Amino acid sequence: MAASAELWSISQLAEAFDTTPRAVRFYEAKGLLKPQRVGGQRVYCEADRKRLSLILRAKSIGSKLSDIKTFLELYGREGEGRKRQLQFVIDKTASEINALKAKRSQIDATLAELRLIHDGARQRLERRTG
Amino acid sequence: MAASAELWSISQLAEAFDTTPRAVRFYEAKGLLKPQRVGGQRVYCEADRKRLSLILRAKSIGSKLSDIKTFLELYGREGEGRKRQLQFVIDKTASEINALKAKRSQIDATLAELRLIHDGARQRLERRTG
DNA sequence: CCTTGCCATGACGTATACGTCAAGGGCCTC
DNA sequence: GAGGCCCTTGACGTATACGTCATGGCAAGG
Question: Across the interface, which of B75, B94, B103 has its CB nearest the CB of A61?
Answer without folding.
Answer: B103
